Amino acid sequence: MATPSFDELDDRLGFVYDPDTGECIGTGHLKISPTEIALELPVDDRVSEALDLESFPNEPDPTERLVFIDRHGKVALGGCRLRNTTSNFGGGLAGWARISIDYAAEIGQADQDYWQVTGLRSEIAGLPAWTGLSSVNSKRTTNDSGLIRGVTVEAESKESIQIGTEHGLSLYPHFTFNESRENGQHILTEKVFVQTLVDEPIPWEEHAYVHQAMQDLLTVAYWKPCGMKVSAASNKKYPLMKISSGEVLTDKWRPVTSVRGGRGKRDTEMMLPTRTHALFSLDDLGVGNLQRWIDKPEEWTRVVGPLVASKYQRGSTVETQLIQTAISIEALGYLVALRENKVQRGKNLSFPQYLKRIHETLDCSVDEVIAGSPHNGIPPFKNYEDWSVAFNEVYKQAKHADHPLPDPLRAVILTDAGALLVRLYLAQEFGVERQRLEKNAKYAS
Question: What secondary structure does DSSP assign to 404-420, as a single string?
Answer without folding.
Answer: PPPPHHHHHHHHHHHHH
